[in-house]
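Design a sequence for this backbone.
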């Protein structure tokens, strides 16, 4: 597979980072919940962990977009914001499965394309 090299020159696998912290997932602040547990379970059930890393982090930064995810592969970073429906997270799983089978096929599922943004 054609993976990005890290600072040590080692190959890195594609990665999905889900924000679930200061703003993202905070239903008490009016944001939608982030189904981190469900995502991790699905990742495990579909045996994606060795091919695409999934992690959650307290804050990815662009809080105005709330419910943010970052997809990292090769030399690309795809930021997604305003994830608000199970179907969005299912599409992230779909993307993970797709890139795990064919790393050159990194096209986003159609439902995620309008959620793409470039952080300031």
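Sequence:
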């Amino acid at each position: 597979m054609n993976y990005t090299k890290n600072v040590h020159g080692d190959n890195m696998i594609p990665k999905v980072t889900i924000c679930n912290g200061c703003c993202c997932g905070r239903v008490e602040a009016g944001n939608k919940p982030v189904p981190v547990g469900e995502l991790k379970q699905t990742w495990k059930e579909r045996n994606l962990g060795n091919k695409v890393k999934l992690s959650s982090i307290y804050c990815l930064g662009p809080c105005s977009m709330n419910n943010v995810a970052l997809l990292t592969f090769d030399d690309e970073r795809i930021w997604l914001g305003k994830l608000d429906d199970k179907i969005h997270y299912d599409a992230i799983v779909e993307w993970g499965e797709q890139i795990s089978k064919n790393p050159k096929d990194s096209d986003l599922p159609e439902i995620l394309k309008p959620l793409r943004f470039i952080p300031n």
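Helices lie at 36-45, 86-101.
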